[in-house]
Amino acid sequence: MAVGKKEIARRMQRFEDVCRRRGLKLTVQRAEIFRELAGSNEHPHAETIYRRVHRRIPAISVDTVYRTLGVLEGQGLVRKAEVLAGPVRYDANVKHHHHFVCTRCRLVQDFSSPAMDRIPVPQAARALGKVLSCEVHLRGICARCAGREGS
Ligand SMILES: [Zn+2]
Ligand SMILES: [Zn+2]
């Protein structure tokens, strides 16, 4: 479930590269907020990120976290995962991927699927406008919840 060490290192490297290239200050707060997301597969809410970073940096404010997430999103380092109603969740996986949403515990998990990437856009959808991206959100009961039910 956890993000692999190598992937976290890759994301942190990209974060530093982007900051340097765009002239964004590499502050400790910024780095810690990004690190929190880079190491998570859970698509956490801004409030959750705030609570976790606050343990390491007690001086950080919730405003800073929201503002920083906005900056990171503007730089393409994180994105919003708009799969469930409610407060916005963030995703440090900016590669094209799909989501499996558990309707019981509301866990949102990533998966990739070349087959789903190739789903042709139907004429009925094309008639509605220009399609810019296509992501699949599967809803179901996650393995953890299903296991709990079975026992
Ligand atoms: Zn679940
Ligand atoms: Zn995701």
List keywords for this structure.
alpha+beta, three-stranded mixed sheet, 151 residues, single chain, two-stranded antiparallel sheet, binds zinc ion
Report on this model:
- The chain has helices at residues 5-22, 28-38, 46-56, 62-74, 114-117, 123-126, 143-150; strands spanning 79-81, 89-91, 98-102, 108-111, 137-140.
- A hairpin with a 7-residue loop joins strand 1 (79-81) and strand 2 (89-91).
- Helix 2 packs across helix 4 (62-74).
- The protein has 151 residues and is an alpha+beta fold.
- Bound molecules: zinc ion (ZN) (2 copies).
- One zinc ion binds at residues 102, 104-105, 107, 142, 144-145.
Short synopsis of the structure:
By secondary structure, the chain is of the alpha+beta class. The chain is 46% helix and 13% strand. A three-stranded mixed β-sheet has the order 4-3-5, with no helix packed on it.
Largest sheet descriptor: 3 strands, mixed
Cα(first) to Cα(last) distance is: 21 Å
How many extended strands? Answer: 5
Shape: globular
Mean pLDDT: 92
Query: What is the ordering of alpha helices and beta strands?
Result: HHHHEEEEHHEH
Uncertain residue ranges: none
| Coarse structural class | alpha+beta
Question: How are the strands ordered across the major sheet?
Answer: 4-3-5
Report Rg. Answer: 17 Å
Q: Which small molecules are bound?
A: zinc ion
